[in-house]
Specification:
Blueprint: H1 8-119, H2 123-141
Helix pairs in contact: 1-2
Length: about 140
């Protein structure tokens, strides 16, 4: 058989090659393990992200519904406010008309008495003038 002879330099190169091969195998195996464990961690992270997304979209949907309900309530409140404003204005006008009517009812009899005294009319003529004045003023006030 043949003899193998190696120099110190060749032995050193072979040893460094073996060490390099060992280190490469070691990193290959550990990276495979970390990939399998990281895929489990990734699955957990993905699940938590999906849960978060679902909660976020549900919150957004409920807030959108709440905003639309609030807008509807605001529109109803504005409509009611306009209606109440119109009703208040009509009531003010009615109050003014009643006030004028009360003036008419308060002063027309005195006008009738004054006309009777100035013109020397009878009580029946005074009543007729008061009725005519009242009817005329009430008709002129009506729209």
């Amino acid at each position: 058989m043949g003899n193998l002879t190696f120099t110190v330099l060749e032995i050193t190169v072979l040893m460094l090659g073996a060490i390099l091969l060992g280190i490469t195998i070691h990193f290959f195996i550990t990276s495979r393990r970390s990939l399998s464990t990281s895929s489990l961690a990734n699955a957990k992270i993905n699940k938590s992200l999906e849960d978060w997304k679902l909660r976020y979209f549900n919150d957004i949907e409920s807030r959108d519904k709440e905003i639309s309900r609030t807008k509807e309530q605001l529109l109803k409140a504005e409509e009611n406010s306009q209606i109440y404003t119109i009703e208040a204005e009509e009531m003010r006008k009615q109050a003014e008309a009643e006030k004028k009517k009360s003036y008419i009812q308060a002063y027309i009899p005195h006008i009738g008495i004054a006309l009777r005294e100035i013109l020397g009319l009878s009580k029946a003529e005074e009543d007729k003038i008061v009725k005519t004045l009242t009817d005329t003023l009430e008709k002129s006030r009506m729209p």
